[in-house]
Specification:
By secondary structure, the protein is an alpha/beta fold. Helix content is 25%, strand content 17%.
Length: 174
């Protein structure tokens, strides 16, 4: 791309020289944050139907691995459709620095590189999944009214149907 601004040229090169060529990558990891206002544990979306995706996801020892076919047009699904093992890694809430999640994501990248034997004399790392939840669906809570929320449970805390998970207050504290 000639004459474009640097961000435009960068995006053009990624889309046209890497992603448009399904043979340019052996694996893909989409690293990003949750949407603004959302919060959650360190988790990955993974489509286990393609060989290599399960190992890729498990190397992360994330809090949660959501096993699903992905969203059409997403980076993860596009790579998987090309036969390239890929996952999406959600590294915590947007606009908020979370050192624990960032450190864990970084360690995942190092384990992945060792697993791919990108280091001299590397051996496949062993992973401990004893603290990892795997599932095929998420449940959400939808309040009847809008307002300020005081969440009364912790991330990853097990809850029962009907259990209070938060209190919604209006702008006057009611």
């Amino acid at each position: 791309m000639d004459g474009g601004e640097l961000p435009d040229a960068y995006a053009f090169n990624i889309w046209n020289n890497l992603w448009a060529n399904g043979t340019a990558a052996d694996i893909a990891v989409d690293l990003h944050t949750l949407s603004t206002g959302a919060d959650g544990p360190l988790w990955a979306y993974a489509d286990f139907r393609l060989d290599g995706v399960q190992r890729l996801a498990e190397l992360g020892t994330f809090d949660v691995i959501k096993i699903d076919p992905g969203e059409p047009g997403s980076i993860e699904t596009t790579w998987v459709d090309f036969g390239v093992p890929a996952i999406t890694l959600e590294i915590g809430p947007a606009k908020r620095w979370n050192n624990d999640y960032i450190d864990r994501a970084e360690q995942f990248i190092y384990r992945l590189m060792a697993d791919l034997q990108m280091y001299p004399d590397s051996t496949p790392p062993e992973v401990d999944l004893s603290q990892t939840y795997k599932g095929t669906n998420f449940s959400t809570v939808a309040p009847l009214n809008t307002g300020w929320v005081n969440v009364t449970v912790e991330k990853l805390q097990e809850v029962e149907e009907g259990q209070e998970v938060g209190i919604v207050y209006n702008s006057w504290g009611d």
